[in-house]
Design goal:
The protein has about 170 residues and is mainly alpha-helical.
Length: about 170
Amino acid sequence: MPGSVTAGPVNSSVGHTSSNMQEAATTTWKKRIDRPLGVYLITIYDFLVVGLIPLLTFVLFVRNSDTEMSLPATMLSVGLYIVVMAFSVWACVGDNIGRWLLLSAVTLTAVMWIVNAVFILSNMDLPSGEKPSVIGFISRGVMALALNWWYFNRKTTVAYYKRDAPAG
């Protein structure tokens, strides 16, 4: 018909072509695929070994102990373990701020373990059977520090966390 306009396929997204939408979907999909396996492993390790297991151990110790713990020390310990678990989830999602916050929380937790263990070894008379468990806190703290700082500062891991950062 003269004067009639023939319309092509209608796209419900105003201003977007179907190829742009496919590219956006592909880009989003690629970002999910690009996450290194180590990010899952280290954040799960931090959640369990630096957060959940020490929290449960601490709660069981406090419940079954005759010694009274100070409220600030208890709140600091429990709060730090919960913060490590929260930041490990945040870092697992892929946020760079979450990575730095997890590194700082793991560092504080490991330093707390090491300082407390050194204090216990130097100031208390422990039965010989308890010394290896106290020394275990030192080795766990050093291992958590070394593993986290090494992995989260690797070139490929940093590139993953900075993938959305504006160039400049």
